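Need a sequence for this fold. Nothing fancy.
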């Protein structure tokens, strides 16, 4: 909010009177999605009436709530906030246009897209889900559906599951562009996986031990891309002489399973491109 506030001040600094300043904060810009019960809000220095027009229909917003952060822009005035409570389901799925008006004069416009949840107001529904590695690595948000809000809220924050430890499961490969064409194709083996996650060096090392005794080691750095783990700048070596490089294209860890998809390039005597899926389970 603070960033948008200062952007608004800079954009409107040339206005003839500071008391004409206002900013339409929510929904945010650029265009976004909106669902459930939401607040259309912002601030204006010196309006008598604030209206929010949605698809050509005007709705009067509550105006005059306390906004201490607007004092410098509004000559010390702080009762500048406005808000309009809406159920986005009332407007139906698809794109909608909003305009914020102070005493009939537009000072902001937004476009939102409302997804189709299957009804205007869902009744009798229940559900929960989790988001791992948010708001930081190693954290898990447990989200729970709230009917009154028509959306999910954070029920609790826990530790996210870690890939560190021992797993058992398949290694699936799709090989292409091999120097020896007979090595092209799809294959799969079963393995034990020993994963070591070093939070200090930010590296992940996984040792694969196959049923035949073949051992391969995958090692690379890890980081978060949003809330998804990314395994990158990886090296791949096996006891039969295979070597290569890799990076992950998908990474999932739950309480009892993991799945990592790797784009691997063999760099030894065989130069296949490998689309691999490493997977495992544990109690």
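Here you go.
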């Amino acid at each position: 909010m603070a960033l948008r506030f200062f952007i608004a001040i800079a954009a409107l600094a040339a206005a003839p009177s500071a008391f004409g300043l206002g900013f339409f904060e929510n929904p945010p810009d650029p265009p976004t999605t909106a669902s459930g019960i939401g607040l259309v809000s912002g601030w204006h220095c010196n309006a008598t009436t604030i209206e929010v027009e949605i698809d050509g229909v005007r709705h009067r917003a509550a105006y005059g709530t306390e906004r201490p952060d607007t004092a410098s822009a509004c000559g010390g005035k702080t009762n500048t906030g406005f808000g309009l409570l809406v159920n986005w389901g009332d407007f139906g799925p698809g794109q909608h246009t909003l305009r914020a008006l102070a005493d009939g004069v537009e000072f902001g416009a937004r476009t939102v897209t409302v997804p189709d949840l299957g009804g205007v107001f869902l009744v009798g529904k229940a559900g929960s889900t989790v988001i791992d590695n948010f708001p930081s690595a190693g954290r898990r948000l447990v989200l729970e559906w709230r009917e009154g809000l028509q959306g999910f809220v954070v029920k609790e924050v826990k530790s996210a599951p870690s890939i560190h430890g021992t797993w058992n499961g398949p290694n699936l490969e799709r090989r292409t562009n091999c120097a020896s064409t007979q090595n092209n194709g799809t294959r799969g083996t079963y393995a034990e996986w020993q994963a070591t996650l070093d939070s200090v060096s930010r590296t992940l090392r996984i040792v694969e031990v196959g049923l035949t005794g073949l051992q391969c080691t995958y090692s690379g750095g890890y980081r978060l891309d949003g809330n998804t783990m990314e395994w990158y700048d990886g090296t791949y070596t096996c006891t039969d002489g295979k070597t290569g490089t890799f990076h992950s294209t998908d990474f999932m860890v739950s309480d009892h399973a993991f799945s990592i998809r790797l784009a691997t390039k063999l760099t030894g005597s065989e130069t296949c491109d490998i689309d691999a899926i490493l997977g495992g389970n544990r109690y």
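For context: The chain is about 5% helix and 55% strand.
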